[in-house]
Amino acid sequence: MTVRNLRITQTYHDLARGMAGLLGWRNTSWCCFGTWASRTAGRFIRGEAVPRGVLVMEAIAERVPARLRALTPAALVLIVRQVAQHVAHGNLIVFQDLGPLYARMLDAFTGSTDLDHAAAQCTATLRPGPVTAGGDDLLADAVRAYRDAISATDPDARAELILLANLRIGLHEQIRLQEPITHALLSMPSYRFAPAPLRNALATTWKNLATAQLMDIRLPSVDFETTRRLTAQQLGANVGRGLQYAFPPNLAQLQNQELKALLYDLDRSPNTVLGSAADDWSDLSDRMNFIADLFRAWQQTPRLFLPPFTPTQTQTIRAGQLPHGGPPL
After folding, report:
1. What distance in Å separates the CA atoms of residue 17 and residue 145, rounded to the nearest whole number?
2. Do residues 7 and 41 make contact, with C-beta atoms less than 8 angstroms apart?
3. Which residues contact 48 (CB under 8 A, 6 or more apart)?
4. pLDDT of residue 68
5. Given Cys at both, which of 122, 169, 299, 321 links 30, Cβ 3.0 to 4.6 Å?
6. At 48, is the secondary structure helix, strand, or coil?
7. Mind listing the pLDDT tens digit for each residue in 235-263?
8. Per mean pLDDT, which of 28-37, 55-64, 180-189 is the most reliable?
């Protein structure tokens, strides 16, 4: 499970660089975000988030009457490890959907003189219909947006088309992840002997505390190449720590009508990162409200293209082995 996550993370990075060969290096495709989200997920899968998870669970336990408390340290660790199982399952679900699709795009679009035909090749095996019915309409629309971005010559138009494609991919994967995310955030003691109102209140408290204190996405810091330091963007905090204006110039004033329609449907506070913080990560609208601003604010951040692992770690991971020693993963 751990090695699989590392290989998924590395593959996303490889795909991200391949997509940059088609789209240019100014804008990041969804694969860049996928790289760092998968790398962050690896912390849960490897159990590195256990200490923080225990603190959150202990905070929940304090709200339970003494006669109902049964949270031993071992039980708390078990709960966080159950979360890890759901995170690993979600990591695999997304990769199985998107890894092959991006690989097909690289094969079809690279060197193609007929982008419409190439796009048709990419979407030929996708299932029609909405995600909730097992369909891939959002993925097909994302492929067409990437197609248009490849041929776009205006920098603003290209940036907007890439954001449109990224958001469609993001919405598809978040709908697909609804079940594992819900299960992960409900991996807590049931307090089955407690009255129903107390059980419901505890579940809500757990989801809110987990979103605010346990969950984040770790992105490369400005000096990542030399220090390997990551910046933790809390999911329960505004993107960019609440900067009122955080969008790159090419995405500041949007013109693409399809993008505006989708973005304004997802983003509760359009054109500002204020209000982007999630309260309950198990709520799809909360997730997409955050993700919309994250994608838009970070789309033109070159360090997202940096390798997630050291050269030695990368070589070991490509060989299907778990790296030992060196900087933490």
Report:
1. 18
2. no
3. none
4. 47
5. 169
6. coil
7. 889 998 555 568 999 999 999 999 999 99
8. 28-37
Statement: residue 192 has pLDDT above 70: no
Flag whether the pTM goes above 0.90.
no
| Domain ranges for the chain | 2-318
Dihedrals φ, ψ of 233, to 5°? -95, 105
Q: Measuring CA to CA, how many Å separate 138 from each of 169, 176, 229, 290, 308?
A: 7, 12, 34, 19, 28
Cα 127 to Cα 73: distance, rounded to the nearest angstrom: 46
Residue indicated by tokens 């050291």: 310
Burial 267-281 (b: 16+ CB within 10 A, else e): beeebbbbebbbebb
Amino acid (1-letter code) at residue 179: E
Amino acid at 263: L
